[in-house]
Task: structure prediction
Amino acid sequence: MSRYTKSHLFRCSMCLSFDDIYKNALLKVELQIENKTEEVREIECVISIYDENDFCINKKRIDTEVGAFSISKEEISIEVKDPKKWSAEIPNLYTLAIELSSKDSILEVASLRIGFRAIEIRQNNFLVNGRAIKLKGVNRHDFHPDSGRYVTRRTMLQDVLLMKQHNINAVRTSHYPNHPYFLERPISRPMDSSGSMRAQGL
Result:
C-alpha cells in the first residue's frame, strides 16, 4: 500500500527531444501536484537527473502555489548534454528524482528510471536515435499453463530471457498493463531498459 500526504505528486509525464545530430537532449517534465487541504500551499519542487554512477548531471528547482483542493500543473525543461543514449544493444539508463517540499518539510520523494532515445518514422523507416531498426515482436499475456493468471517473477524473467535468446526486440503487452516487475527489470526495460522495446496493447 502507498500512503500519500495531503499535498503530493498526482501525475508525472515526460517528453524528450534531441537536436538535429542526436547529441544533446531536452527533457520536458510535466508535473501535476495535488493539494487536498483547505489552505493554499507553497510547494518547492526539485527535479534531478543522475547517471549510472549516481552523479547528478543536472538539477532544476521551481516554486509553485497550489490552491485549496486543487491540482497545479507545472512544466520543467532540463537540458542534458550528450547523454548516453538508450538502444536495444546498450540500454543506458538514468534516474529521474522528484522531491516536493513545503516550509522545509519534505512532502514526497519519487524516482523513475529513464532512457534517452528518439523514435521516428521517416520515409517508411522506423528509426531509433536516427538509425533504421527492424522490429521483431511478439504478443505477451500474463499467463502460465499451470498456474493460469498467477504469474511469478521467475516466470516473467524466463519470458524475457526467452525473447532475448530469439532476438525479440518488441513486445505488445496485450491487452492490459503488465505487472510492474516485468516492466522494471533491468533486462526488460525500454521493453524500457531491457534491450527490448514495448508497446501497450489496446
In short: The mean pLDDT is 86. The two ends are 27 Å apart (CA to CA).
